Amino acid sequence: MTEEPIAHRPPRGVFLASLALLVLFWALLAWLKSDESVLPGPWHVADVFWTEAASGRLPRDLAATLARVGLAFTLAMAAGSLIGILLGRHPRLDRWADPWVTVFLNLPALVLIVLCYLWIGLNETAAITAVTLNKTAMVLVTLRQGMRACDPALDELATVHRLGSLARLRHVVLPQLQPWFALSARNGIAVIWKIVLVVEFLGRSNGIGFRIHLYFQQFETAHVLAYALSFVAVMLAVERLVLAPWEARANRWRRFP
Fold it and tell me: Domain segments of the chain: what residues?
């Protein structure tokens, strides 16, 4: 089996130092610009953040966005994984479905969002559907490739031992697909929340994207940055504490002594 590269997380000290340098770079740019209406400094944005958090607006909108991200992510992972495994396991079906996959994979997210709002309406169903459709194609392609990379010798061994379909899936297929599930989840969460913000920007009445749209219209750059960075911080925490360790564990079996 072809060995895939294993992702390594930077040490905690390097990670925090890198973030500190990013903030310092931001502060330097703000100082050079000397116009807080264009580029407010970190302390100004921090003041806005605490004000919005104390008012309750930021926690409510953050929770609304996280709920949409969580639901759309779960639906896309489930649908994309199921279809991807089926296409990877059945080449004839894959040949017929490949043009469909290509179309959905290359259809711009903005187009799908607008079409869902036009067809379904400016409601939560349309928002979740648009995000799920965008992400499903990406998951599908990753899991299909994972199925193609599965070791045929293990499949033959399962046949020799007369494993049933469920036992074969549980003991042979899914363990080999763990790194692909982790890769799909990690890449997906980095994309899906950006799509959710666009969905909220265009047609929802709450969420981080809605607030960014509102403060964009009012030319409140500090508020836009405060809301955007609050969600970026949450996604960094999810990536660092959940997804990256999961990917490392899923790839551990690939390491050779």
Answer: 41-254
Q: Out of 64-68, 212-216, 243-247, which region has the weakest mean confidence (pLDDT)?
A: 243-247
Distance of CA 213 to the CA centre of its chain: 21
Asked whether 88 and 184 are in contact (CB, 8 A), the reply is: no
**Is 92:145 a contact under the CB 8 Å cutoff?**
no
CA angle centred on 94, ends 147 and 193, rounded to 5°: 65
| 36 vs 57, residue with greater confidence | 57
Q: Distances in Å between the alpha carbon of 89 and those of 47, 82, 108, 179?
A: 54, 11, 28, 17
C-alpha distances out from residue 232 to 137, 229, 235, Å: 24, 5, 5
Lookup: tokens for 148? 């193609």
Start-to-end Cα distance in the chain: 16
Is 41-254 CATH 1.10.3720.10? yes
Alpha helical stretches, state H, 121-173 = 124-148, 152-160, 165-168
Token pair 């660092």 is found at: 240
Do residues 128 and 68 touch, judged by C-beta distance below 8 A? Answer: yes
- Residue 245 near residue 235, CB atoms below 8 Å: no
Question: pTM of the full predicted structure?
Answer: 0.79
For tokens 């929802």, the residue is 204
pLDDT in tens, 107-117: 888 888 999 99
